[in-house]
Amino acid sequence: MGLAELVQEQIKVLPERQVKEVLDFIGYLKSRHEQNQWNDLMQAQEKSLANVWDNADDEVWNQGITVNRI
Predict the structure, then answer these.
(1) d(CA 6, CA 60)
(2) What gap in Å lies between CA 40 and CA 24, rounded to an integer?
(3) Per residue, what are the HEC states of 11-56?
(4) % of the chain at pLDDT higher than 90
(5) Based on the number of CB atoms within 10 Å of its own CB, is 58 exposed (0-12), middle (13-18) or buried (19 or more)?
(6) For a Cys-Cys bond, which of 1, 14, 20, 37 suits 5, CB 3.0-4.6 Å?
(7) pLDDT band at 70 (very low <50, low <70, confident <90, very high)
(8) For residue range 31-56, what is the model confidence (pLDDT) as tens digits?
(9) What pLDDT, on the 0 to 100 scale, is given for residue 9?
């Protein structure tokens, strides 16, 4: 029997109120997993684009200063 089946068997004996709590917890775990994937993607992009973002022309963005060029 796989893990999903074991969880299903355990849920069958719970009252509906607790089953709703289990569903809420599953939703929390899913959102945390998705956030971790998003953070991993952002870190990967940051590393690969570091040389593009870190240059003298873009330094004004880091400082929050507006520069008018003629």
Answers:
(1) 56
(2) 24
(3) HHCCCHHHHHHHHHHHHHHHHHHHHHHHHHHHHHHHHHHHHHHCCH
(4) 43
(5) exposed
(6) 1
(7) low
(8) 998 888 888 888 888 877 877 777 77
(9) 95
Domain coordinates in residue numbering, the chain = 3-63
> Can you give the pTM of this predicted structure?
0.52
Distance CA 32, CA 23 (A): 14
Distance CA 24, CA 41 (A): 26
Q: Which amino acid is at 59?
A: E
- Distance, in Å, from the CA atom of 42 to the CA atom of 12, rounded to the nearest integer, reads 40
Q: Report d(CA 36, CA 24) in Å as an integer.
A: 18
Only one residue has tokens 């068997």, namely: 9
